[in-house]
Design goal:
Chain lengths: 138, 65
């Protein structure tokens, strides 16, 4: 998975300074030590799937598992994060205190902040991409 | 929807808020601040329009901010 670049960033190229700041922000989120890169990749791909945006950064087998929410082969931390990612896009008020507490137990306070921030911006990226496509912006 | 803070303040003695919770990851908070400042202070869309859309979005999503 590209650590800081995405189609979202390429869309922001119309505002280069904003694009640079977004890239730096996303790099700080994805580079946070408490959250493994694979955790980001799994959650980002699942949020892309929910929005109907082509997922990236993972092999086909893993993407197939994500698409049917078969998390049986994933670690506890991955499953915990994916449960929150599932709700971030369309059911954000349905994220429970217990689910966030489980995330906090897995990755700590700093990792919880980093992961929740990442999930929300993966959702933002999809929304802007879909909006731009609908408006035929490139 | 949560009715209590889910992440405690990173600053001892200070109440939990968006900023004090985010201080668990100060680098992220700093980069977010730079991004947010650029968004608000630059570009051809007026701050009034940005604020209207922010409030509208907050109401639609039932966000306290």
């Amino acid at each position: 998975m590209p650590r800081a670049m995405s189609e979202f960033v390429s869309l922001l190229a119309q505002r280069p300074e904003l694009a640079d700041r977004y890239a730096a922000f996303l790099a700080s989120v994805q580079g946070h030590a408490a959250v493994p890169e694979r955790l980001h990749a799994l959650c980002r791909a699942r949020i892309q799937q929910i929005h109907g945006v082509p997922p990236s950064g993972l092999d086909d087998a893993t993407l197939s598992q994500l698409a049917v929410t078969d998390y049986s082969s994933f670690s506890r931390a991955e499953t915990t994060a994916l449960r929150v990612a599932e709700k971030m896009s369309l059911q954000y008020h349905g994220i429970t205190d217990e689910e966030v507490e489980q995330v906090r137990r897995e990755v700590g306070n700093d990792g919880c902040v980093a992961l929740l921030t990442a999930l929300s911006f993966y959702d933002v990226e999809c929304r802007l991409q879909l909006t731009a496509e609908a408006l035929d912006v490139d | 929807m949560s009715t209590k803070p889910r992440v405690e303040s990173a600053l001892p003695g200070e109440a939990v808020s968006f900023a004090t919770a985010m201080m668990h990851a100060p680098d992220i908070l700093g980069r977010f601040g730079e991004l947010y400042a650029d968004f608000w202070q630059r570009g051809i869309i007026s701050q009034e329009v940005k604020e209207m859309t922010r409030i509208r979005n907050a109401r639609i999503t039932d966000c306290g901010y």
